[in-house]
Amino acid sequence: MKDLNQKRLFIASCLALLVTAITFAIRARIEGVFTGDYGLTAEQVGRAFAPAFWGFAVAMFAGGYFIDIVKTRTVIWMAFGMHLVGIVLLLLAKDYTSLFISNVFIGLGNGSVEAACNPLVTTLFPDKKSKMLNRFHVWFPGGIVIGSLLAALVIDQLNLSWQVLVALLFIPLGIYGFLFLGQKIPETERVASGVSYKEMMRNVGAPVTITLAVVFMILAANVQSISHAITGSYYLPLLIIGVIAVLIIIEGKAVNKITLLFPFIFACMLLTASTELGTTQWINALLANKGVHPMIILAVVTGLMAVGRYFAGGLIHRLNPPGVLLGSAIFSVAGLLLLSVTNGAFMTVVSAAVFAVGVCYFWPTMIGSAAEYAPKTGALGMSILGGAGFVATSMVLPIMGESIETAGPQMTLRNMAVLPAILVLAFILLSFWVKNKKKA
């Protein structure tokens, strides 16, 4: 660690995540541009935005499997290149196809940032993993605050084109590229601690089944026939989930002979990410008639998330990660239900604040839980969780878009509350597991 510039590398990582976050705020604002000015339906916009999520997953999985072979430095510069190309293509987007392709590159860039920087942060701060991961992930909601306020200023106040808003991404992109330039970047913690690649794979529990499940989810998000077959049936989704669960148990217990803790965390990540990201990506449509600008609500939500994550260390120390996650799930249910019934600016902001408290700790604490309780999963474990979270969101987006058009925003919000309700039960189980492990 003596030869490393920890502060510079951490700041560079945060700015890379800032670029990722601003792209989320920009998508949340310009979905109305593509439905209004370019004639796309809400479902088409949801599908065109989906690559930003499954592309993220592809990059994260690839990074998790190969980061120790190609080195962290290479993945970082891949992120920079993909971001650059994606931003340029987004500036030129005018229809479904061009919007889709631009989001493929942006998604790959965003995923490469997480694939490289999550393990980089845990390597830089081995004794403060959860705390520093939360501080690193401050810049995701923090970036959405910045992006949403910029969107309101550039488009709504100054009446400039949405392309001007997108072009502002070149500023943090250039700065994080400069900060990483010429710096020594360390090996991942897994390599430094001497855990073999084979042992890392084994500790994931069911790497083959999990990877194939994510590939299927990507297909379901992008092939309309598969998507409609799943969403149009009551029993088929349950059957698919059941088959995957059985295969995970067989691979984890019979083949690898190891605890299924990581697959359990993986399943929870699908729901936490969909709750947080699915809602915030459709916030413009979900809260358009609440008496307050949706971008202001997005800024409130993500601003509270940023503050909460920055001071997460003390809370995690007192409650431990499962306790924090359980509280988050409860607040998320309450926030979504309140948003589905409230009207008027004041109560909408209050309800959004409750939702923000709920989703605040989901993402970094889920990744931190894997790093704390399944450390031998290494960079692969963190990448699988991040990738799975985004590919789950890519499935949810078009479903939410169709629901908004048919059932309306209020019913869509109410239905989304089912996801964190399931998580309440899941995190109670996780709390018992951690408690019993400490006793043992």
Task: Describe this structure in a few short sentences.
It is built from 23 helices and no strands. It is mainly alpha-helical and 440 residues long. The model has no long low-confidence stretch (mean pLDDT 86).
Give structural notes.
- The chain is mainly alpha-helical and 440 residues long.
- The chain has a single domain, classed as Up-down Bundle (Growth Hormone, Chain: A).
- Helices cover 84% and strands 0% of the residues.
- The chain is built from 23 helices and no strands.
- The protein has helices at 6-36, 42-49, 51-70, 72-92, 96-124, 129-136, 139-157, 162-167, 170-180, 189-192, 197-204, 207-222, 224-231, 235-255, 261-281, 283-286, 294-310, 312-341, 345-359, 362-373, 378-406, 409-416, 418-439.
- Helix 1 (6-36) crosses helix 7 (139-157) and helix 18 runs antiparallel to helix 23.
- InterPro entries: MFS, MFS_dom, MFS_trans_sf, MFS_Transporter.
